[in-house]
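Escalation from tier 1.

The customer reports that the assembly of two entities below gives different structure tokens on two consecutive runs. Tier 1 could not reproduce it. I'm attaching the input and our single run for tier 2 to review.
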Amino acid sequence: MKKNRNVGIIGVGQSVYSSHREDVNQPEMIHEAAKEALDQAGLTMNDIDCVVHGNMELFEMIHQPDLWHSLGTGAVGKESLRVTTGGTTGATLACVADQLVASGLHDLVLVLGFEKLQEGHTTGGITNMADPLWSRQLQTGALTGMTAAQMIEEFGEERAKKVAMKYRIQMDQHAMKNNKAHRRLGLSPDQAEELAVNSPALVGELRMIHMCSQSDGACAVIMASEEKAKELCAQPAWIKDHITAHREEMFCIFGDEPILTTHKYAARKLYERNGITNPVQEIDVFEMYDPSSWWGSDWLREFLLFDNDEHIRMIEDGDIALDGAFPINPSGGVIASNPIGATALVRVAEAAMQVMGTAGDHQVPKPVNQALASGFGGTMWTVLMLLTREIPW
Amino acid sequence: MARKVGICAVAQTTYTRDKWDQRFQNMCLTVVESLREQTGLDFSDQGINMTVSVSNDIFDARTISDSGMTDVLGAHFGCEEKVDQDGSQAVYYGLAAIQSGHCDVVLIVGHCKESQPQSRNMVTHMAFDPFYTRPVGLDYCAAAGLQAQAYAAASGITEDHLAKIVVRACDNASRNPFTPEAAPVTADEVKNSPMLADPIRQLHAYPVSDGAVGMILAAEDRIREFTDEPVWITGVGNSMDHFFLGDRDLAANRALKSAADRAYCRAGISNPAAAFDVIEISDQYAYQLPMWAEGLGICETGTGGAWVEADGPDRCHVNPSGGMLAGNPLILGGLVRTAEAAVQLKGAAGDRQIDGARTALAHGVTGPAGQFHTVITLERD
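Tier 1 run:
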């Protein structure tokens, strides 16, 4: 692969995330994010060539909402593209915008992901993704107790539960430093035992406290060609590479053979083609799409290509803390804020902020030369995006 | 300068009222198998490295309407993305993906079963905002009625013109093997068909249909591996108009003119009226054929009525396929138009072939009363 030209992120904007943004309608909420991104990049809407938009229609029951949202995105008179791929949507939007700029079609693209989950029924919407003939009767939205059961079987009940709760409390401590985050609960480690017992059970050992939120919110990112990025931004977050791996709807139907996950497949391929041999050493911060603290803990192993309990030890040792050796989700992650069509774009945006040094109170203290962002969605789909401080191509 | 991108192969199912015996996966598999056969491509790293599907969650009543596509598209651990706009936007995306250098070969597959929703007007009704425009009962057909009134007044369109457009579309469609249900109609039948949204009558509206369409795009440095007759994408452009109908001059074609200008600028076309041997326009309703032709610069602004009267559509080789009036699902319009234009340039259009066609234009439209337009220009060597 030879990229046609470099692309950098030069502005990030986010609405405040909340369970109920009743003070704004959809275009107004989107406008908050778009305006903040434009302001940060020192641009106005007149400078933007193209708007890339995405979300999932059945959450709000708006058909092709980019048409209405043009009131908030400023897309009137612009080129535009609407792409939706489920939970991965936001990360896909970032990939699309990278390609629109790298191709030479556009110099400045505004990327916009949003969801206003309060206006619909989230679990109903997610259940509706399952095949109506074969699996819709079995689908329980995004709730699954399988990962918890597997971790408990592999690492023992006490250790697995402690790790999942430690991960959860760590994420809340990060969210407390991010004033845009939705759930900022102020949890402390000495609440772990009480929460493990008293938080309502959802499925098996997946409890309410482990699970991500349903949020209202929008996220905007501005991507620029190399020339524009250098002119407009002292430190852009450069896009080095990205990879998308999808898989079939039906999984685990042939017994419990160990299966290669799209997370591991995508990570391995991305590291290979970018010469990354030791991801923990070479990646400085990771914004992971972690829908629950069980999945977050388990997926760390997939993304970092571990075989044994290295990921468990990283959590136990506090390595994933904002000031730890391998910080994960300084923003608080998906467990704190989850406007689904924006969620994966927030991962890219937050990783970019760490590279640009604009994350404020949740900026990691160590230098960030390379950051990784992941998107998750569909039937275990993965998107990974690698951002760098140095110009990559 | 980014590399050139061409269309290697196209495939379509027929467009028929109700493919009750096929799920969308079946329709898509027909298309994908044909494309693989035509090009010899597979889904290895050296084969198709990205798929863009086109579908819509509300038409399919399915969140993530592409989640059933991975099996069909051979996308096991591969890249599969979904465009949720008019299908021509998948070509725009595929072009960018290849020109960016990220991939060499892109598969595009669009599908829709408009027979599934009880009413397509209920689907398009959901495109209107819940505060101001949904409560008054707007859908795309009603919005088109308002636009048709405004445009007819501006360009001298009469009931006879509209009937003539429909009669011609059905006649052309009778030579298109992919529209087997299109039957000849008379002008009287058109003029006596039930009124949907004044002045739009039932036979002025595109029919309900099920179908799938696909194509393969490749970079110029690899395209000869897959075809001897590449059809080059020379220009693309699209543009968004205001959402609220009252914020627009409905007869002004603002978005289409800007989309066309962008495509012509990228393609280096200065006189569109003389630039194309074949033109495929997404005419969801009869009035749109002359209206979009004006917007594209195929005929002068304000002269649509005279253009139809003087057999402009025949002289300019517009919609030899029959166009959307002969039937294809709403969201596939521009992708079917692009496929038909490519088939013409490959000289493979059979009874509907325009002899010696070397250049073509394909047009797609999304949203109420043409809020968003896409224009694609094509040529062969």
